[in-house]
Design the sequence.
């Protein structure tokens, strides 16, 4: 084998071995940590590499937290990283909370981060309150006038309630409910227009931020508009409904009257048929009476005269005839 080739191969092997040694032994990170007064051993850095934990991430986090005066161990940072947390956001959140005198320890910060919330934004929200604009909320006062109100809710994060606490949607829903309750309990809409701060005071007194991840600082009514006259509209609709009911009942009574009239006409026709039937039996009865000698000729004439008088009186009593029995 050529001596030059063997020497070159040896040089390449040494370089590769040196790179592997530097990869497994992050001397530069260890040296940087020592200069930053961070107590972390070179063996611990090697074990981090074997546990698939980036040594640079842990080292830089340790340096940042130590410079900020926080007491965090490398084991705590490794545990949070292996649990799927965001180490950099947790460290930044702890530093911001410490500078703002907000009580926040590493355990609570990691719990908030693992719960899926942005712990750094939560700390910033606790320092700088946020204004939430509610959508238009419509409610009706006791006098039937509809009012449409918009509110601005100033909130800040409640660090201790971030894990398991309700979100912004719950705050908006509760504020809307408080606005509806306040307007609905007012005797008339003018009271609300004259004193819109009644809504703010009533809503704030209900403790709407209970069980949420926020603390309500203030509720300000931004705008109140007058909507429809719901009371008058309801009365109009009720009057129309009553009219329809009355018409239906009147139609029912009319139909019943028509039915009764038809029934009476049928009964009259039936009675008239019976009279005609009886009259048809009269000649037979008279013939039988003549035959038996119970009716004489004079009796028959008297009966005919009585019938003629009766017909004359009936004709005179009908309207449209004069006293002589002639029509007008």
Sequence:
């Amino acid at each position: 084998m050529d001596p030059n080739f063997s020497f070159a191969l040896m040089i390449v092997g040494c370089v590769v071995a040196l790179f592997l040694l530097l990869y497994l032994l992050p001397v530069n990170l260890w040296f940087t940590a020592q200069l930053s007064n961070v107590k972390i051993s070179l063996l611990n850095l090697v074990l981090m590499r074997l546990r698939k934990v980036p040594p640079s991430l842990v080292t830089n986090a340790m340096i940042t937290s130590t410079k900020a005066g926080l007491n965090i161990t490398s084991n705590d940072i490794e545990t949070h990283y292996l649990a799927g947390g965001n180490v950099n956001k947790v460290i930044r959140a702890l530093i911001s909370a410490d500078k703002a005198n907000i009580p926040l320890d590493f355990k609570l910060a990691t719990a908030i981060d693992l719960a899926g919330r942005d712990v750094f934004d939560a700390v910033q929200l606790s320092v700088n309150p946020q204004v939430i604009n509610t959508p238009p909320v419509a409610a009706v006062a006791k006098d039937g006038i509809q009012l449409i109100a918009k509110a601005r809710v100033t909130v800040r994060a409640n660090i201790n309630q971030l894990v398991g606490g309700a979100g912004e949607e719950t705050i908006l829903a509760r504020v809307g409910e408080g606005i509806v309750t306040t307007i609905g309990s007012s005797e008339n809409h003018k009271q609300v227009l004259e004193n819109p701060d009644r809504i703010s005071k009533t809503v704030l007194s209900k403790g709407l931020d209970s069980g949420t991840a926020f603390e309500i600082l203030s509720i300000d009514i931004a705008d109140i508009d007058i909507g429809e006259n719901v009371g008058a509209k309801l009365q109009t609709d009720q009057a129309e409904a009553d009219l329809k009911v009355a018409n239906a009942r009147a139609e029912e009574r009319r139909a019943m009257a028509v039915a009764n009239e038809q029934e009476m006409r049928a009964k009259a026709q039936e009675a008239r048929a019976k009279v005609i039937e009886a009259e048809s039996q009269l000649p037979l009865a008279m013939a039988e009476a003549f035959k038996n000698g119970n009716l004489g000729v004079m009796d028959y004439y008297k009966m005919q005269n009585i019938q003629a008088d009766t017909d004359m009186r009936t004709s005179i009593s009908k309207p449209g005839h004069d006293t002589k029995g002639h029509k007008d």
